[in-house]
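call fold(seq) -> tokens
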Amino acid sequence: MSFGFLGIQFGFALQNANVSRIFETLGASKDELPILWLAAPVTGLLIQPIIGYYSDRTWHPKWGRRRPFFAIGAILATIALFLMPNSTALWMAVIMLWLMDASINISMEPFRAFVGDMLPNEQRTSGFAMQSFFIGIGAIVASALPYIFTNWFGVSNAAEPGTIPDSVRWSFYLGGIAYFLAVMWTVFKTEEYPPDDIEKLKAENAEEGIWDGLIESFKGIFKMPKTMVQLSFVQFFSWFALFAMWIYTTSAVTSHIYGTEDTTSALYNEGADWVGICFALYNGIAAFVAFLLPVVAKKTSRRMTHLLALVCGALGLLSIYFITDPTMLLISMLGVGIAWASILSMPYAMLSSILPAEKMGYYMGVFNFFIVIPQIVAAGILGFILKNFFDNVSVFALVIGGVSMLIAAALCLIVEDNEEDAELIVSE
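ret:
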């Protein structure tokens, strides 16, 4: 059921570890990077709630409710992954990022609701932990691919100005294949439970037009249960931190630790490859920690588990400022990995237990607003802050991210993870 997330994370991990590298190679400046990354949150903002809304209202006797969206997203994302590393100009790479992120979102959003559909409440924490495991495994391999191609197979990791290195190019090709095969495995090997009242579902669909769905999706932000509202603040600061990390880690590591900003130099590309290894490690830690989180949550609580994990992530990001030896970055990534495992599972476990089954995809899509809105905010202000207050020194973006994650941890204290109360709010 969760195996498809292995493929989805190939797409996200390749994007997170390499897109800034591609943009810089094609001539982007440091303060331009956040705006160029705007595709990621905007496509999520537009696509995920809409896909969630319509996947709730879809049913096919053979293909089910969520799986048609898995398949469509996989086909489009695979095409985008093949095209992205062949960009010859910055504007082409930006367009490919829009296509790639939109396609990944089409697949990803229904996977969140899929766990809620298929598992009873007492198994959902473990179900989302299993998703985190497959996300971790996929990201380990995908993030390390440029390093593997260069150091194991002798593929060049450097190229002429304005040209994407072969190691990155082949990583995206392999990632596209892995994405398609893993998602389609879930499509063909998983059977879904039919809705309780198929005739009612058909009647609702007949009465609604596409604009009804679009409007209803965006109105959902004003109908959130109390616990969902509280979690949204935690999500905001968590994902602001993650977006800062994904955008600026390559630039921060190559300039702050390797001491170079020349994207054609061997030293820059060595540093960029090492960032891939760092990202692989934090995802590997997340895959392992994913199985420990339900144990910790059972002994404490889900919100306290999430709080502790976010503190670990904040310390990991803040520590990068003090590092001069690249190998020490691996210690920083331990904390980031713990936080990432929890971010991928604990909020969804808390949320899914308070939502009505017939609106699981809808509310998961609305909850996604608080993943994408902080990224849009980060895209709008990070470049300005770095340029005007930190002389474009990229490592300060990671410091800002660490502070943001500490705020997210503190906000966990306001979350009321009380299933009975939340269900009353939903029903009202």
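The first helix runs from residue 4 to 25.
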